[in-house]
Design a protein that fits this description.
GO molecular function, one term: metal ion binding
Helix content: 10-25%
Strand order of the largest sheet: 3-4-8-7-6-5
Radius of gyration: 15 Å
Distance between the termini: 15 Å
Family: Belongs to the MsrB Met sulfoxide reductase family.
CATH architecture: Beta Complex
Number of helices: 2
Number of strands: 9
Order of helices and strands: HHEEEEEEEEE
Oligomer: single chain
Largest sheet: 6 strands, antiparallel
Protein name: Peptide methionine sulfoxide reductase MsrB
Pfam families: SelR (PF01641)
CATH class: Mainly Beta
InterPro entries: Met_Sox_Rdtase_MsrB, Met_Sox_Rdtase_MsrB_dom, Mss4-like_sf
Shape: globular
Number of domains: 1
CATH superfamily: Peptide methionine sulfoxide reductase
CATH topology: Metal Binding Protein, Guanine Nucleotide Exchange Factor, Chain A
Length: 157
């Protein structure tokens, strides 16, 4: 069980956050789009910290779970907390895949594939535009004004 509040944003919070998103962020986060491969800002990020939901700030993945999948998108083998991710069956484009969304706000993150490294064997293939990043030692975002229970990215280990 997570220590983070997973209640969704209020309608007013959702409107305010959406108003501050760039067009590409809206397309990916809210319309389940995909950014172009090998273009995302976090693809080659090797800093220590925590990747968060770009929309609501919920911690999603630790940098220690990131790996180079060669696919062109940031990939992780394990979420920050399983409760922070929700999986949805995706049958778009004639494929059967598992879509990943933020468990708190429902924003589209990417897809999960069963071809990742140990220990999980999963590849969480994410859009950089769906993510924020907090370096170790910096405060976790509190986009919804609820208080970040663990304080900083490095204390969130």
């Amino acid at each position: 069980m997570t220590i983070f509040d997973l209640a969704p944003p209020s309608d007013e919070q959702r409107r305010n956050i959406t108003a501050g998103l760039a067009a590409d962020e809206r397309r990916v986060l809210l319309e389940h789009g995909t950014e172009a491969a090998f273009c995302g800002v976090f693809l080659d990020n090797h800093k220590d910290g925590v990747y968060t939901c770009r929309f609501c700030g919920l911690p999603l993945f630790r940098s220690s779970a990131k790996f180079d999948s060669g696919t062109g998108w940031p990939s992780f083998f394990q979420p920050y907390d399983e409760a922070h991710i929700r999986s949805i069956r995706d049958t778009s484009y004639g494929m059967i895949r598992v879509e990943e969304v933020c468990a708190r706000c429902g924003s589209h993150l990417g897809h999960i594939f069963p071809d990742g490294p140990p220990p999980t064997g999963n590849r969480h293939c994410l859009n950089s535009v769906s993510l924020g990043f907090v370096e170790d030692g910096d405060a976790l975002p509190d986009v919804l004004g609820r208080g970040a229970p663990e304080g900083t990215a490095d204390s969130a280990r």
